[in-house]
Amino acid sequence: MEHHLQTPLKIEDIKKLNAGDIVYISGEILTARDEAHARILEMDKKKEELPFSLEGGVIYHCGPLMQQTEIGWNVISAGPTTSGRMSKMTPPLLKAHGVRAIIGKGGMKGVTDALKDRCVYLAYTGGCAALAAELIREVKTVYWLDLGMPEAVWVLRVEDFGPLIVGIDAKGKDIFADVRENAQKQLGKQE
Amino acid sequence: MSSKISREDFIRSIADLLRKAEIELPDDVVDALRKAEAAEENPVAKSQLQAILKNIEIAKKHGVPMCQDTGIMIFFAEIGTGFQPGFDIEAAIREAVILATAEIPLRPNAVDPLTRKNSGNNTGAGIPDIHWKLVPGNQLKITAAPKGAGSENMSSLRMFNPTESGNIKNFVLETIVNAGGMPCPPLTIGIGIGGSFDAAARLAKEALLEPLNAPMEEMETEILEAVNALGIGCMGLGGSTTALAVNVKTAHCHTASLPVAVNIQCWANRHASVVFGEEE
């Protein structure tokens, strides 16, 4: 099934998604990878307010390649980064913030419970950064540039960003886990 | 004999070489991806392979890097004993990296390993990483192979007991299963067997540069078939092509050891070469 969603996302929007469905997102998405996740959690711990809202938000695991021009920032290349690195930091982040979708590549381990009834994981084809850049219409703003270009939080306006494959739905189905389990079985047969 | 290239022209050529490597994949890699797309029956995997092929076209058309992870700067240099540039080649390559980072542009990826401070220009201690080989002749061949971290992070090295060569295939398979979709399959798998701890890793990395359409050895075919039977598929979402090719390189090693390195390369097997100087 194919879905076209508009941000901010509502719980109902994501509850109807099933693993394997194709999704296109329009609206605002925020990039966040290792260092941004660590800072969000650190600020949460100190009960400090984030400079951006994650309510109904979409986090994109992406460290984009940007170019500064006289009028602002220009996206050159912006594909997904490996989500697995954010696996451990994701459950506490989802507990504290109303993130409704995470876009990344490669899947995440140990997050299905944290995602249940509140968030989905959407897989975007890894390395397809030139394609992604075409679908990013505007760089709205950037936070935490002190973390470096790849690690900063970039607020992007996107239009029909996709195709995204629902990799982990909000009902506990995880395509990556199924594929991994099958691969383990195959490995057992070869030994 | 003077090799007659000015420092300025050399820097220009290396910056252009990086541009080519970042924007355009070698034909053998694109062909292998096309074949994988044509053969794929899993609809999700097919859609992912189609996105990759479309991305390759867009990058080429717009002249932008195919992936936002423009890699860590790795070069392989084969320098002829008769090639005399008359300037510091390493310093010139470093300058070319800084120039290419600003003008292509490339994402600044080089950071201090502990403070994580980004140098901002893709250079730093030991970076660019240049592998030198002294060869006969009057030429200098430089290959740029900017390496992304997603696949590099999933690579592995094990020091086997000398009698355990029968376990090498299984070690490769375990590495690939553990990696799943994280290194952006379909992969090129470089395997270095023998040498020493560091030499095995270097062989594995060199193996990634071998043409994907070259005839494979029996061991390579056996491992490739076993890897693809795992069903991990494009991006780890399932499918028939997890790897495009397996390349093995070997070196003699100590009688008491058997080092094996597995270097994983994502679908974007980027590399480009340039030759300076005249043939003899």
Distance between the termini of chain A: 38 Å
Low-confidence stretches of chain A: none
Oligomeric state of this protein:
heterodimer
Task: Report the β-strand fraction of chain B as a percent range.
Answer: 15-25%
As a percent range, the share of helical residues of chain A equals 25-40%
Assign a percent range to the helix content of chain B: 25-40%
| Proportion of residues in extended strands of chain A | 25-35%
Taking the sheet with the most strands of chain B, its summary is: 4 strands, mixed
Q: Please indicate the count of domains of chain A.
A: 1
Give the CA-CA distance, first to last residue of chain B.
Answer: 11 Å
CATH fold naming of chain A = fumarase
- Approximate shape of chain B: globular
Q: What is the H-and-E element order of chain B?
A: HHHEHEEHEHEHHEEE
Number of helices of chain B: 8
Q: Which structural class is indicated by helix and strand composition of chain A?
A: alpha/beta
Structure description:
The complex is a heterodimer of chains A (191) and B (280). With 191 residues, chain A is an alpha/beta fold. Chain A has one domain: fumarase. Helix content of chain A is 27%, strand content 32%. Chain A is built from 6 helices and 9 strands. In chain A, a hairpin with a 2-residue loop joins strand 4 and strand 5. In chain A, 48% of the residues are buried. The mean pLDDT of chain A is 95. Chain B has a domain at 149-265. Chain B has 8 helices and 8 strands. In chain B, the strands form 2 sheets. Chain B has a 4-stranded mixed beta sheet, with helices on one face. Chain B is globular, with a radius of gyration of 19 Å. The model of chain B has no long low-confidence stretch (mean pLDDT 96). At the A-B interface, helix 5, strand 9 and helix 6 of A face helix 3 and helix 6 of B.
